[in-house]
Design brief:
The protein is of the alpha/beta class. It contains 10 helices and 10 strands.
């Protein structure tokens, strides 16, 4: 009897030509126990790679009838690539994981079991990875502490984008039209029943990490600005602190300058310094407000989250994408 329940696996990839064959072999082995019960769909997303990633994915699709793929016109970023995959996933449940093998495919049957137990969202919680730099571990902890302090979202500090969503949860997620997408927060905002599965990240088998400091900062800003007024509150607090410090320094120097011969010049210099300090605090607050204004401007323009270049998958949610040149998709 043919399986009536479909399980989709969404795998974004950017410049991963070396690791993709290894990843696909590990994924196929992990899905083998589920093959008798589920119709399986493997959906790769090429995020505008400039190497042979798309060529390798085409080869996987030619060799494995379960494979579909979409290719974006340029590099739109990890969260946009994930969104593209989720838009095209047709499964009753959808698992997303990175294709660099740091998210272990062997954990997928466990996620499916938690879903079958009645959970609409199954998160994976990353164990502390001592191979990461102290800066990355420290900045990550600081970011989640700020997010927890200034928002009502219960975003786990070690949650990853390796997760399972039921079709109900996924349909709810795809109704959210944010241009700047922080999927971890968006999934938590939905409010569905959540289960958690811990995992230890694996070492990369090939290739290098594409998560640069710039991408980390952009990701953190998307999380803070999309779900928290923390930057505005911090800017206001910093402005008040700077103003108070400026007045304190000005008063102290003014009192000390009374004993100087040229006290008027000292007072002028203190006033200028205080004015510059207050202006710096004001510019900080204006900059934060400007960042919110820019994001509102980008949102109201209504541009798609991504643009497709090529696809063998049928889009399930056309609202967030521009169409692609479509190749004929083979039946699974």
């Amino acid at each position: 009897m043919a399986a009536t329940t479909t399980l989709s696996i969404v795998c974004p990839a950017y410049q991963e030509e070396d690791v993709l064959p290894l990843f696909h072999a590990a994924l196929a082995a992990a899905l083998e126990p589920l093959a008798a019960e589920y119709a399986l769909e493997i959906l790769y997303v090429d995020d505008g790679s400039r190497d042979r990633t798309l060529e390798v994915i085409r080869g996987l699709a030619a060799a494995d009838p379960r494979v579909r793929y979409v290719s974006l016109s340029r590099n739109f970023g990890h969260q946009a690539a994930l969104t593209a995959g989720l838009d095209h996933a047709s499964g009753d449940a959808v698992v997303s994981l990175d294709s660099d093998l740091q998210h272990p495919p062997a954990l997928i049957p466990t996620l499916v079991a938690r879903w079958r137990a009645g959970n609409d969202v199954v998160l994976t919680i990353r164990a502390d990875d001592v191979r990461l730099s102290w800066f990355k571990r420290f900045s990550s902890r600081l970011f989640y502490k700020i997010l927890a302090r200034f928002t009502d979202l219960d975003v786990r500090p070690s949650a990853s984008d390796f997760r399972l969503l039921s079709r109900t949860a996924l349909d709810g997620l795809l109704r959210l039209p944010e241009a700047h997408r922080y999927l971890r927060g968006m999934v938590q905002w939905l409010g569905f029943r959540v289960a958690e599965v811990p995992f230890s990240p694996e070492a990369r088998r090939a290739g290098t990490s594409k998560y640069t400091l710039r991408r980390m900062v952009r990701f953190a800003l998307d999380g803070l600005l999309s779900f928290s007024p923390a930057p505005v509150r911090l800017a206001v607090g910093a402005g008040l602190a700077v103003t108070a410090l400026s007045w304190a320094v000005t008063s102290a120097v003014a009192l000390a300058s009374l004993s100087f011969a040229d006290s008027h010049l000292a007072l002028v210099l203190v006033a200028l310094t205080g004015g510059h300090t207050v202006a710096a605090g004001a510019l900080l607050a204006i900059g934060v407000l400007g960042e919110y204004a820019v994001r509102i401007y980008e949102q109201v323009k209504g541009r798609p989250v991504y643009v497709l270049k090529e696809s063998t998958a049928v889009v399930q949610n056309p609202a967030l994408a521009l169409p692609a040149r479509t190749r004929t998709a083979r039946a699974a």
